[in-house]
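Q: What would this chain look like folded?
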Amino acid sequence: MARSLTLSLLIFTAAFRSDGSLAQIPPAIAAADEVTVATLHAEGAQIYECTAKSNGRPTWEFREPIATLLLDNKTVGRHYAGPTWELMDGSAVAGKAVANASGATANDIPWLKLDVVSRRGSGMLAAVTTAQRIHTRGGAIQGGCDQVGALVSVAYSADYVFLRTRSVQ
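A: My prediction, written as structure tokens:
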């Protein structure tokens, strides 16, 4: 019996890790009373720029994301500065980060909750009110910078969950 229970637990754990829809969303970025419109995978880079702080020390500052949005391994859109998500159906949303949760490692950018602040088009993203960035891998810059103006791109991947309020159709 104990062996059977252990095997069942291992199978459940493997399924839990491999199926993003079963992932636990940290309370800090949860979107209560909202329903999922779409979950898209992103592959791309986080771009950082070396800037001078008021104390004269150069430091890396996040500049913008550049990523391809995928659904079933097919390109369906792009993600870029704003932050903006734009789909081939003509719909697009821009968001503003309102909450975050740590990534799995120091190399992973944080998970985010973003409120939609603007939208255009009448496609899939037309009714989206919230976006979540989850399952991040990579994207965090490591080390210092010494040349103001230098740009660095750090590869990352993430899943973006687009949600709408229940009352919006």
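The chain has one domain: 25-165.
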